[in-house]
């Protein structure tokens, strides 16, 4: 229940990137940060002091509080479902960072427990809440780009070996990271392909470790077939000399959109098909996962970025891994 001032109250567990999300909670109207939790005391104390809230090293103790409405799960990817399920059983709504977990079975268990307990589940794909992404989705949905021919997710970043080794070396592992450059970084744009273009029918993939000492891929390539007949491609790597770009490229028989070469949408139109981009602009109803959760609670509705939406990219990632292992296309 909201506090006496009508605020939805939050606790954050996992204070790596979770420190950033604690700041998002603290700065979002209608939200109040009550507590934070991490296995590292220095992190927990630092974030708590910054925001004037309580801190915990014991997640179960934080969950015992009856003045927390929502738990924001920002732990290692392979622990997301476990920590989300614990929160749901304690009667808390759950926001979980991407990916929802590293296997579809774990994601399904989280979704089912939230449904069973009657709590909301938000997947924090923060880029979905941007005007840029929602404008692109509108351009595809309304037919401005025509029949979609090809949709690509592309990420070329640099990550050092030290990046993979820090914090116990969880990144780049199958168990805790679900792989590497696709599951950790490129997943944002895999999600956008699922959300904007639609269901994926089949995938063929190859995964490689080219320049790091890790289990999962630092270079992932995949060819996609969408249910609507469009083709797709994924290229995600952390082997590039420096972090250069990440985004999507989608084109149809009337026009194209690119977010890989500029911070803004780059529009390309076929001759005679020019459309004023302003007519396609969408202003988001909610601007982040915290606002999404608050709106869903107060209006008793499904979040925009629900658990079911978050599940889609994990299905694709699991199919990519299976295709690589089998050396053949996999039907979803």
Please give a structural write-up.
This protein is of the alpha/beta class. It has two domains: 8-127 and 287-306, NAD(P)-binding Rossmann-like Domain (Rossmann fold), CATH 3.40.50.720; 128-271 and 314-331, Dihydrodipicolinate Reductase, domain 2 (2-Layer Sandwich), CATH 3.30.360. It has helices at 18-27, 41-51, 59-63, 80-89, 104-117, 131-141, 161-165, 174-177, 181-196, 289-299, 307-326, and strands spanning 8-13, 31-37, 54-56, 70-73, 93-97, 121-124, 148-156, 200-208, 219-226, 231-237, 245-252, 255-258, 266-269, 330-331. The strands form two sheets. An eight-stranded mixed sheet has the order 13-12-11-7-10-9-8-14. Helix 4 runs parallel beside helix 5 (104-117), helix 5 (104-117) packs antiparallel against helix 11 and helix 9 packs across helix 11. The longest helix has 20 residues, at 307-326. It is globular. The model has no long low-confidence stretch (mean pLDDT 97).
């Amino acid at each position: 229940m909201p506090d006496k001032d009508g605020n939805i109250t939050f606790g954050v567990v996992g204070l790596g990137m979770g420190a950033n999300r604690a700041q998002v909670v603290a700065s979002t109207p209608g939200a109040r940060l009550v507590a934070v939790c991490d296995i590292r005391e220095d992190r927990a104390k630092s974030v708590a002091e910054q925001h004037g809230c309580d801190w915990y090293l014991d997640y179960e103790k934080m969950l015992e509080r009856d003045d927390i409405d929502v738990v924001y799960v920002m732990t290692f990817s392979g622990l997301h479902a476990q920590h989300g399920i614990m929160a749901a059983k304690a009667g808390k709504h759950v926001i979980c960072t991407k990916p929802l977990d590293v296997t579809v079975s774990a994601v399904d268990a989280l979704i089912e427990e939230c449904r069973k307990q009657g709590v909301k589940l938000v997947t924090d794909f923060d880029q979905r809440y941007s005007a840029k992404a929602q404008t692109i989705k509108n351009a595809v949905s309304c037919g401005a780009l025509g029949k979609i021919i090809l949709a690509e997710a592309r990420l070329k970043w640099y990550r050092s070996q030290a990046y993979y080794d820090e914090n116990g070396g969880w990144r780049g592992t199958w168990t805790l990271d679900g792989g590497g450059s696709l599951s950790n970084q490129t997943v944002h744009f895999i999600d956008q392909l699922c959300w904007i273009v639609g269901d994926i029918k089949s995938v063929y993939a190859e995964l490689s470790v080219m320049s790091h000492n890790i289990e999962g891929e630092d270079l992932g390539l995949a060819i996609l077939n969408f249910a609507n007949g469009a083709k797709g491609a994924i290229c995600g790597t952390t082997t590039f000399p420096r972090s250069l770009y990440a985004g999507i490229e989608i084109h149809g028989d009337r026009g194209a959109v690119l977010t890989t070469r500029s911070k803004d949408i780059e529009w390309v139109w076929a001759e005679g098909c020019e459309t004023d981009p302003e007519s396609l602009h969408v202003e988001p109803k909610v601007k982040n996962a915290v606002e999404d959760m608050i709106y869903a609670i107060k209006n008793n509705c499904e979040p925009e970025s629900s658990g079911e939406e978050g599940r889609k990219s994990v299905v694709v990632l699991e199919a990519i891994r299976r295709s690589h292992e089998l050396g053949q296309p996999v039907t979803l």
